Amino acid sequence: MVFDTSGSKSEPAVLEERGCGIGCSLMNEEDELIVARDEAIYTYTVDGRGPCFAFDAPKVLLRRFKHYLLLATAAPSSMAPNLANGDDRPPVDATESRVYSYNDPTTFTILDTKNKLVAYTGVVPGGVRGVATEWGSIFVLGGHGTMDFFSEKDLLERLDILYRQNLYPLAVKMAQNGNYDMASVAGIYKRYGDWLYSKDDFDSAMLQYVQTIGVVEPSYIIRKYLDAQRLNNLTSYLQELHTAGMATSDHTTLLLNCYTKLRDEERLNQFIHTQEDYQFDIDTAIHVCRQAGFYEQALYLADKFSKTGMYLKLKIEDQDDIKAALEYMRKLGDTDISAYLAEFGRRCLGSLPSETTELLVDVCLNGMNVRAAAATADEMHDDMSAPYADTTSLLSMRRIQHLFADQPTWLAAFLERIITRRWLPSDSSRELIAEEDSDMKSAWNTLLELYLCSVESPLHELNSSSSPSEKQTPKERALNLLRNPRTNIDWERAYVLCASNGFTEGIAALYEQRGDIAALLDLYIEHDSLPSMRRLLDEHGESQPDLYIKALHYLARNPQLADNEELLADCLSTIEKHNLMSPLRVLQALGDSEQSGVTLGMVRGYIMRQINATSKRIEDNKAAIASYTSEFKVHSEKMDALKNKPIVFQSTKCTSCMAPLDLPSVHFLCKHSYHQRCLGDIGDSCPRCQAENQKLEDQRRAQEISAKQHDAFFDKLHHSDEGFDVIASWFAKSPFAFTKLIDQ
C-alpha cells in the first residue's frame, strides 16, 4: 500500500493484495518499489504496478547494485538466459508454498535490468547469508563461511563475450545503453550482418546492414548483394540509402536498375512520385528508365524538372509520338524551340510533315519579327552599350532549310508560306534589315530552283479548289515567279538555273525583266520562235529599230519558216523607214548566205523603191550642184571685183540714222555708209552686217577645230553605213585649208 505523507489523503492506497518474502523487496534509484515473488519480479510506482520480469524460482533475498538486481533463490533454480517483460501471474495459493531449510544451497543470480539479461548465476553451498555492495564490487557471504567477490567487467570485455557467443542483439543493446557512438554501434550491426550473411540468412543480414547506413561504405554491402537472386535485398538497402540522403548518382542508377530488372513498376512509380526533395541525379534516373523501357516514368521526371531535350528525345525517338512533341515545343520560348527544332526537325518532318512545317513557319516568322524589333531598337538606342535582344540563337530561315533535305515538296510548301505571309502582303512595304533581305533572296531563289526541278508543293494539292485542267504546273509557277515584279531573285543565279534546266520561257522572262531586248531577240532567233520574234518586233521595233537588222539576217538564213515573206517585208520597210542600212548592205545580207532562199520577187518592191529614191536623190544632187556652181561663180566675181576694181560709194544717207551724209563719214565694202559720229567705238565692222559676219566667222572657226578632231572623224566613219558620204562631208568642210606648212 501507498501512504500520502502530504496530508491531503489520510487513507492509504492499496496497490497489490499480495506481498513478498522478507528481504525480497527494495527501492531503486528511480523511486520504484521492486518486489520479488516466486513467479516474477514486479515494479511499483505511486500510480500502480509497472513492468515485471518473469523469473520463476523461490526468492530468498533481493538486493541491487547500480542497474543490476542481486537475487538469491532456493536451489535448484530455473531461469532463462534472457529476461523479457511478462504478464502478471495470478497469486499462488498459500498451500503451495514450501519451506526450505536455512542451510540449503542457494542459487545466486545477477540480473542486468537495463539490458534484460542474466549477467551471472551460480550456486552458493550452505545458502546466502548476506550480500554487500561496496567499493564498486559485490561481496556474497555463504553459509559455510565462504565469501564470493564479484566485480563488473568493462564494456569492451562484455561485448567481446557476447561476440564469442554470437549474441549480437544483446551486444547492440548493451552498446546503446553504454552510450556508444553511432559508428561503434554500426560496427556491431556490421558484425551481426556479416555473421547472418555467412549463415545464408540474407534477409536478416540486410536488416542489420541497413542500420550501418552513414557509417559503413555502401559499396561493401552492395558488392555482397549484386547477385540476381538477391536484388530484392539490394533494392531494400538502396531505398534506405536514398531515404537517409546518403545516395549518390551511382546508387540511384543501381536502384533504378534494380527496379527495372525486377520489373517492379509499382515501387518504381512510388520511388519517383513520392520523392519530395529528389536527392538523386535526375539525368541519371531518366537515362536508366529510358534504357529499361519505362518511358512514362522517364517522361514524368523530364517534364517535372524541365529536361526539355530529354523529354523530346523520349517522345520522338522512343515513343514516336511526334504530335505530342510538336505540341510540347509550341509551349517553349523562342530560343529553346529554335534549338530543339534544329535537332529534331528532320525526324518530325518525316512523320508529320504538315504539322511540322506549320510550326517551322511560325517559328521562322516570329524570329524575323524579333530580329526586326531588335534592329529598330538598336537604331533608336545606338548610344547604349547593350543590344536590345540576343537574336543569334533564333532559328533563321536559312538555318531551317537543311531540315527539308529529304522533303523537297514540303520545303516548297514552307517557302511558299513564308513568302505569302511575310513578303507578299500589301502592307509589307517596310524596309528590311540586312539579314531578312538575305533570307528573302534565298527563299525566292530556292523556291525557283524547286519549281524548275518539277517539285510539287503539297499546299497546291490541299488548298487548290480549281479543276485539274486549270491547275498550274511547277514550270508555270516558276514563270509567274520570274514575272512577278515584287520578287527579289538573284538574276545571275536565276539565269543559270533556267539555262541548266532548259527553261527558255524563264530566260525570256529574265531578259524582259532586265530590259535586254536585243538578247531576248537573240534567244528567239536561237530557238526559231517566229511568233515570239514578231511580237517582240511589234512591241519594241519602233523604240529599237536596230532589232530589224538582226531579224533580217535571220530571215535571210531561214526562208523556209512560215510567214517569212510577210515578216521580211516588214523588216525591209522598217529598215527603209529609219534608214538603218544602205540598200547595198541589205542586198548583201539577203544574198551572202549559201542557204538563202530569198527571191527577187520577195524584195522587188524594196529594190524599186530604192532605185526610185536613188534616182530622185541623183537629180536633186545635180540640181544642187548646178545651184552651188552658179553661186560660186557669182561669189568669185564679187571677190575679184573687190580685189581688182574700184568701188563707187553712191549712198547719200547714213545707214544708221538715215540722215544725209556729211563729213566725216565712213564707207564699208558692203556698200553701207555711216556718219563717223554714228559709229562711235564700233570699230572696223559694219554694224548692219556684223551679225552675219560673226556667224560666218564662227563657222570658219568650227571648221578649223573640226579639222583637227581626227578621232571623231574615224569613229563616225566606223559606225556609218555610208563611209563615202562621211568622207565627202568632211572634205566639204575644207579640212586642209587650215593646215600650216612647216619649212623643212
Write structural notes for this entry.
By secondary structure, this protein is of the alpha+beta class. Helix content is 53%, strand content 10%. It contains 31 helices and 13 strands. The strands form 4 sheets. The protein has a 4-stranded antiparallel sheet with strand order 1-2-3-4, with no helix packed on it. Strands 5-6-7-8 form a 4-stranded antiparallel sheet, with no helix packed on it. The protein has a 3-stranded antiparallel sheet with strand order 9-10-11, with no helix packed on it. Helix 2 (168-177) runs antiparallel to helix 3 and helix 30 (710-719) runs antiparallel to helix 31. The chain is rod-shaped and about 205 Å long. The protein starts with 24 loop residues before the first strand and ends in a 13-residue tail after the last helix. 26% of the residues are buried.
Write the topology of this structure.
Blueprint: E1 25-27, E2 33-36, E3 40-45, E4 48-54, E5 59-65, E6 68-74, E7 106-112, E8 117-124, E9 128-134, E10 137-142, E11 147-151, H1 155-164, H2 168-177, H3 182-198, H4 202-210, H5 218-224, H6 231-243, H7 249-262, H8 265-273, H9 282-292, H10 295-304, H11 308-318, H12 322-330, H13 334-351, H14 353-380, H15 397-400, H16 408-423, H17 434-452, H18 458-463, H19 474-483, H20 491-500, H21 504-514, H22 517-526, H23 530-540, H24 547-557, H25 564-578, H26 583-591, H27 600-644, E12 665-667, E13 673-675, H28 676-679, H29 690-707, H30 710-719, H31 723-731
Antiparallel strand pairs: 1-2, 2-3, 3-4, 5-6, 6-7, 7-8, 9-10, 10-11, 12-13
Helix pairs in contact: 1-2, 2-3, 3-4, 4-6, 6-7, 7-9, 9-10, 10-11, 11-12, 11-13, 12-13, 13-14, 14-16, 16-17, 17-19, 17-20, 19-21, 20-21, 21-22, 22-23, 22-24, 24-25, 24-26, 25-27, 30-31
